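Action item from last week, closing it out:
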Amino acid sequence: MKLELEAAKGRLRDQLVSVPIATASDARVAGAALAVHWLEDVRLSKCPRVALYAAQSHEMPTRPLFDALRERGRILLFPRCDARGLFFAGVEAWEELEPGRYGIPAPPAHAPVTRLGPRDAVLVPGLAFDAAGHRLGRGAGWYDQGLPAGDAAPCLVGATYASRLLASVPHGSRDRDMDAIVTERGLQWVQGEA
């Protein structure tokens, strides 16, 4: 069963990465729309701390959201990966980010690590999501394993282009589900969430 699940995920990953998502211009517009949708949501706009990601070419841009949240005085965190796992650390300026694991911009190694909690929100990148909150990531499991769970879990918001919101995404019991999904077209809470 596990092998079948991983094979299905692998086939979908291969299919998705082979298709270009957006032009640079479309990506800028999508990133600005993502920021608007986040700020218009009553629950998310109140989160005191927000963990973002520095987008790669296949991911929804987050710089507009970073700038908008910084103007509103929110504490902004970014992931940093090392041999021990996934950690989040704060930055006050986008320019503080430096190349981390896989060359992905991350907080500097000296930035203090912060533990996320239930009042926080995490914008989670993904190759694809479905309306039930299932996520297809790159396959390393960083977000699935590195985020607090249960009562200590932060609000998880999946970010992707509307074209990557699929009818169904292969998922297993170890995959973390999202509380909401945001695309350039809007933000949708998963059933039962609000």
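Closing note: The chain is about 25% helix and 25% strand.
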